[in-house]
Amino acid sequence: MNFDHFMDYQTTGFGGLPDVTEHSNIRRTISRQNSTSNSDSGGEIASIQKSKVNFNDSKSPSDVSDALAGDVVAAVAAKAKRKSQKASQQHGSGGGGHMVGGSRVGQHKLTGRNSCVIGLTLVVAMSLLAIAATLLYQHFVMAPSRNSHTQRLKIVKRILRDVPLVDGHNNFAWNVRKYAHSSLELVHVSNDINHKSMWVRPAWAQTDMERLKMGQVGVQVWSAYVPCEAQGLDAVQLALEQIDIIRRLTDMYHQDTVLVQSSKDIQMAQRQGLISSLIGIEGGHAIGSSLGVLRSFYSLGARYLSLTHKCDVSWAGSSSTAIDAGLSQFGKAIIREMNRLGMMIDLSYSSDNTARDVLSSTRAPVIFSHSGARQLCNSTRNVPDDILRLVAENGGLIMISFDSEDVACGRQSRLKDVVDHIKYIRTIAGIQHIGLGAGYDSIELPPIGLEDVSKYPDLLATLLEDPNWSEEDIAMLAGKNFLRIMETVENVRDYWKRAAIQPIEQTEPQPKSQCAYMAS
């Protein structure tokens, strides 16, 4: 294979590898148009205009009906005009046909032909009007109404039969590790009333299989969360133990959920009526500054890594610390390896400089697994407007947190606060770049109206109150956008595999510790 053309794409730390993602050219133009079309000219979130960029551009039934009716009127008018012109020509020509029995043979033929044309025109016109009437009837009478919350919930239920609802972040596994000492058999996850459980549903226990099904969740990303206090100690072990919990959970409840590792797996699980369980790792210190550990996590099923948590790592800065550090050279090597593996890069908790460095380096779209809009709430997890626009250009995704710290600046939040963040980010980044990442089982004060995982349909039904939100918009927010990101990340991986791009081995000097057998 000839790699000479790679030299046109030189990027620090990537050895001249090309930007092969589908979003690199076309999607960046679309994203800019999308952001512009979604901008709120009056500055009010409530008056957000509907995005003009959709996956399936098509005219509504009422548009089709208007067009058909216009065609009918135009056709009849044209026929009448031509008939009038022909009649005038015949009348003025005088003696254009032979006289038989006091009448002109040519005029008889012309009159018969005109009668056929008029009759045919009327038949066509009546057919077109019948089609237009049918479409209007279907649009205004048979189409599901959006007037009541119950009617909107029915629409949401229908959408989620075809499009899996994706929640990008849930801390259930950490709670099992911390409070049940990794013993799943002690945890009440099913609806079996005879189940002997120590799980007395504290305020932060917002997830179980029954409520996931009530919420029509199609994809649950289970986070393997590693506290900052474990950095340099047992961080890798804590991550591995939670990956084990997630894998055992899917085995124990195999009739409800299945562990997935690709976008195709998700589509298959959706067809089988199963919840897709996906693994994400929260906290870059979980890899112990080792590319080998990163690759091992991927082999075990981890499909995204949050680069930081509330602490800096040696190769990337956190948004929770005073110094706005960016990526080191080793950090760029980690981004490159994640692109090669097909592992999604999660920038929730990353510093602004880290986010910008990643967005200028990555060859694949990124995600913010559970964040909000910093313009509405100055939370460390939230994203400023300029980075929202960069994410749109990258083709990435901001998945909305439900945590009151993020959506209501620490006060008790309500469903409307989450809606406000969704609508605001849509105005800046566009409909193609928003998703859901609630963060259940780590939220001390969930929003009123979104108390647990069963409440997702209420959120989507509330968005449908806004006439600027179409059913397709709801489908994109619920899951289509996330699936597109995952597929694109997999496409980059596959391209690099075909190009025979090999894994790299690079290390970063680590401080000496009594807990380490040998230095890197």
Produce a short descriptive summary.
This protein has 16 helices and eleven strands.
Features of this protein?
single chain, 520 residues, alpha/beta, six-stranded parallel sheet, three-stranded parallel sheet, 11 strands, 46% helix, 10% strand, globular
Largest sheet: 6 strands, parallel
The number of strands is 11
| Average pLDDT level | 82
Question: Using only CA atoms, what is the Rg?
Answer: 30 Å
Question: Portion of residues in helices?
Answer: 40-55%
Outline type = globular
Q: Which structural class is indicated by helix and strand composition?
A: alpha/beta
Per DSSP, what share of the residues sits in E-state strands of 2 or more residues? 5-15%
Order of helices and strands: HHEEHHEHHEHEHEHEHEHEHEHHEHH
- Separate helix tally: 16
State the distance separating the first and last CA atoms: 35 Å
| Low-confidence sequence ranges | 1-13, 22-69, 90-103, 192-196
Structure description:
- The structure is a single chain.
- The protein has 520 residues and is α/β, with parallel strands linked by helices.
- Helices cover 46% and strands 10% of the residues.
- It has helices at residues 23-37, 61-93, 105-142, 149-162, 172-179, 209-214, 235-252, 263-271, 291-299, 329-341, 352-361, 385-394, 404-407, 415-429, 456-463, 471-498; strands at residues 99-100, 103-104, 165-170, 217-225, 257-259, 275-282, 302-306, 344-346, 367-371, 397-400, 434-436.
- The strands form three sheets. Strands 3, 4, 5, 6, 7 and 8 form a six-stranded parallel β-sheet that branches. A three-stranded parallel β-sheet has the order 9-10-11. The chain has a two-stranded antiparallel sheet with strand order 1-2.
- Strand 5, helix 8 and strand 6 form a beta-alpha-beta unit.
- The longest helix is centred in the N-terminal third of the chain and has 38 residues, at 105-142.
- Mean pLDDT is 82; it is low at 1-13, 22-69, 90-103 and 192-196.
